[in-house]
Amino acid sequence: MIMAKGCEISPATLAVIGMKKGENYVTKIMEYEQEDDYEVGLHSYKVMDMTCREFGISLRGLLEGSRRLTDTSHKPPIVIDRMSNMYFFPVESPLKKSCIWISHTHVKRTERLSNYQTKIIFKNDRSLNVDVSYSVILNQINKTAQYRCMISDKMSDILPLSQYIAETNKKRRLP
Fold this sequence. Notes:
Elements: E1 2-3, E2 13-21, E3 24-31, E4 38-40, H1 44-54, H2 59-70, E5 78-81, E6 86-90, E7 100-103, E8 107-114, E9 117-122, E10 127-130, H3 134-171
Parallel strand pairs: 1-4
Antiparallel strand pairs: 2-3, 2-7, 3-4, 5-6, 6-7, 8-9, 9-10
């Protein structure tokens, strides 16, 4: 199915696949259930940016924040929504209209198909072949795992403080 507009990346999204179709770029949204897959007449950067904006930030902002936090200059992972485990990593430059974004949460394993092709197998046993070397994909998976730990650690440091502040605010009495 091809949709002109209106796309929704959700916790059930496995991959966001940018591709050239004729003279234009389209994006296939690969969902947990194959019958839920669909295409959007927008390039993948736009689809990812629209989704990020639904959560109150731009894709550019997430990429810059990830670069700063991880000290990564190329292909930084992003978290669209931490509470629903929406962590994605790009397999090439996120600025490319044909960029493929993979949901880190759903990756089960990978297989080397050739020097420049890798199969990504998801937890539901669906798979996606990408024209990227096995080592690049493994690096992206590891980089995203490290990023998830960093975000989790930051939240663990913040949460005890916020609970204390919330408790102190409850004890305050207004005149």
